[in-house]
Amino acid sequence: MPWWSWVLIWVALGACALLVLVLGAVFIVRKGLRTMEAFGTELERVMPSSRALDPDDGGLAPSAGPAPGSAVFADPAQVRREYAEGREERRLARRDRRVQRRALRGQPQSLADLGLD
Fold first, then answer.
1. Beta-carbon contacts of residue 54 (< 8 Å; ≥ 6 apart)
2. Element (H, E) at 11
3. pLDDT at position 71
4. What's the rounded mean pLDDT across residues 80-107?
5. Minimal CA–CA distance to 67: which of 77, 55, 57?
6. CA 33, CA 99: separation in Å to the nearest integer?
7. Span 25-54, mean pLDDT?
């Protein structure tokens, strides 16, 4: 075999390898773009227009909760009281969900859940 046939073989192998790499990169980029589009769609489904734009404040609408960092300058007794109230609300909400779930499934209720203990 003449020497130039080896050069031709290696050039063809390099071109094929380059083609496979380019096609693989195109495939991965397109797959990534589809994934990001699906993620955006699901994010909109989960959080529909919860961040409506308000032209008065120059951007996002104000949140319902306190401003970030406001607890740093708040009275510690007030923050403790708010935390305790929130904890009690969450506990009662869990209890209500548990009672409702057990009623739907026909399971016996706990006396503590019904407030009879």
1. 60, 61, 62
2. helix 3-46
3. 77
4. 93
5. 57
6. 44
7. 84
